[in-house]
């Protein structure tokens, strides 16, 4: 890594993390191209998502799973950021996760290799490769592909990411709006929510930093919060009086079995399997990058202003 990355290609850049990171990369004086699958079956949702992405980035729509498409668009890239991710797959076989994490990463590595693009920032997750959830297993397989490559890779493993428009506090806020009582499986599962600004800072610092090459950074916040605690903080920030009902193991599992069959899978069997592991880390990857982790619990009202 001799020169700073001037042109950065971001996969999954239209999402929650992507739109903040893209803005930051542009502010740092880089050219940014976001790759996206385009509208798909829900054009309205895509339009809404695209409206949140700064117009200063180039947006290229195409089949991000296709190695030829990737080869063509990585032509003059200096670095690639892979933020593609899903929390649920169709069915419960693990194939969907393998496709989105392992196979897409493999195609990306091939395209980068063929174009002599050497710098990759790969988003992963805490507990990748651990436990028996298909999501975490596929995450682990993707990490293994990246580590086996000859690229200058850096892997980031966040706990849940918190910030305006997130899928954590904002999601629970939407549920609590309607439900006076919220039954929750694995209510005692522990997380260390990490602030979106810190995640973006980590990527921004690492991209040109040779010391971050071949490193894996767990990204966690300073507070360990249970799932029930996160929901209670959400209710309190809105002044809502809600009952969080911690379900015993068997009922929590049953809730996931039922959720698996509902449209949009509000909770799935695989989510349940992931929840068996606490999403916490003793190692502080932010500190290793010189970033002091932001406390999230005191920022919940700010987070909810966007929802
Ligand atoms: N948010 C968190 O708490 C958290 C925690 C740990 C890890 N992560 C990981 O961090 C990354 C970014 O998270 P995020 O919260 O920004 O996610 P997000 O908002 O869901 O964005 C992910 C992006 O991935 C693309 N994508 C989704 N399904 C795809 C598919 N089947 N094939 C190809 N591309 C697909 C989408 O882009 P297009 O629709 O434009 O194609 C989407 O905008 C993900 O890998 C996520 O798993 C997030």
Automatic annotation (TrEMBL):
InterPro entries: ComplexI_NDUFA9_subunit, KR_dom, NAD(P)-bd_dom, NAD(P)-bd_dom_sf. Residues 6-164 form the Ketoreductase domain. It holds the Pfam family NAD_binding_10. Belongs to the short-chain dehydrogenases/reductases (SDR) family. This is Complex I NDUFA9 subunit family protein.
């Amino acid at each position: 890594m001799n020169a700073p990355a001037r042109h950065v290609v971001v996969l999954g850049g239209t999402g929650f993390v992507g739109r903040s990171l893209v803005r930051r990369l542009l502010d740092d004086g880089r050219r940014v191209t976001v790759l996206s699958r385009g509208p798909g079956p829900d054009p309205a949702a895509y339009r809404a998502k695209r409206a949140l992405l700064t117009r200063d980035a180039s947006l290229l729509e195409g089949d991000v799973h296709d190695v030829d498409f990737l080869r063509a668009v990585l032509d003059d890239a200096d670095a690639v950021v892979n933020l593609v991710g899903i929390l649920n797959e169709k069915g419960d076989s693990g194939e969907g996760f393998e496709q989105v994490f392992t196979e897409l990463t493999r195609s990306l590595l091939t395209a980068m290799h063929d174009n002599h693009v050497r710098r990759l920032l790969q988003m992963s997750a805490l507990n990748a490769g651990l436990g028996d959830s298909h999501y975490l297993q596929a995450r682990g397989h993707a990490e293994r592909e990246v580590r086996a490559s000859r690229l200058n890779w850096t892997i980031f493993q966040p706990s849940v990411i918190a910030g305006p428009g997130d899928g954590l506090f904002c999601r629970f806020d939407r549920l609590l709006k309607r439900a006076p009582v919220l039954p929750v499986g694995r209510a005692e599962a522990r997380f260390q929510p990490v602030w979106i600004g810190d995640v973006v800072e980590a990527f921004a610092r690492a991209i040109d930093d040779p010391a971050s090459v071949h490193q894996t950074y767990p990204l966690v916040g300073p507070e360990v919060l249970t799932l029930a605690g996160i929901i209670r903080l959400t209710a309190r920030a809105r002044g809502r009086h809600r009952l969080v009902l911690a379900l015993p193991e068997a009922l929590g599992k049953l809730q996931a079995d039922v959720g698996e069959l509902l449209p949009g899978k509000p909770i799935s069997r695989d989510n349940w399997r992931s929840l068996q592991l606490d999403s916490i880390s003793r190692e502080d990857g932010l500190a290793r990058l010189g970033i002091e982790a932001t406390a999230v619990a005191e920022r919940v009202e700010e987070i909810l202003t966007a929802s």
